[in-house]
Amino acid sequence: MIVKKLHETGIKSEWAYAAAFASIALSFTSWVISKKAENAGTDRADRWGIFVGQWAPTFFGLGLALRGYEKN
């Protein structure tokens, strides 16, 4: 139902894939910035990187689901 609504609003699978790759880049960037800017050590930097990195599979999944609607 959600994917159908996203498709009807004009969101394309390519946008979801682009968001997934951007999420991977943002994950790495947030890890580097957190590691250098905060005095909390590597543990906090790792948590930031993992948190943002978990978005990528969601966006890839949405991309695959949207691709199914685009083929119809």
UniProtKB/TrEMBL annotation:
Q: Does the keyword Transmembrane helix apply?
A: yes
Which keywords has UniProt assigned to this entry? Answer: Membrane, Transmembrane, Transmembrane helix
* Domain of life according to the entry: Bacteria
Where are its TM segments located?
Answer: 15-33, 48-66
Q: What is this protein called?
A: Holin
The source organism is: Saxibacter everestensis
